[in-house]
């Protein structure tokens, strides 16, 4: 392998008598706006009662789009709506799933269908 050598020269003091000026660039950090897209996708796949998971997913995508455009207020609004819909979808999904399990445990013959007598 060829090893490159770089020389560093010492510049020393500034050559002009005027004071040295510096420029400061402030880079605005991205504002963190949660869009809850993973939670919405989970609710869409597993707890999509009354299509609330799908609607939450749509609002999450809208929130992400608003964030990409730079509309922070719109992104926060859509993200908040997606969060509320996700909470309702999750609670309804858990209650209905637990209710179905309890119903099947208490009445095991309720969901059997007789075919041909």
From TrEMBL:
> What are the record keywords, sorted?
Membrane, Transmembrane, Transmembrane helix
| Localization, UniProt | Membrane
Q: Which Pfam families match?
A: CD225
Question: A Gene Ontology CC term for this entry?
Answer: plasma membrane
Q: Which InterPro entries match?
A: CD225/Dispanin_fam (IPR007593), IFITM_antiviral_protein (IPR051517)
Name of the protein in question: Interferon-induced transmembrane protein 3
Query: According to the entry, what is the taxonomic lineage of the organism?
Result: Eukaryota, Metazoa, Chordata, Craniata, Vertebrata
Q: An example of a Gene Ontology BP annotation on this entry?
A: type I interferon-mediated signaling pathway
Protein family per UniProt: Belongs to the CD225/Dispanin family.
- The transmembrane residues are 37-61, 82-107
Q: Which domain of life is it from?
A: Eukaryota
Main localisation: membrane
Give the originating organism. Answer: Myotis davidii
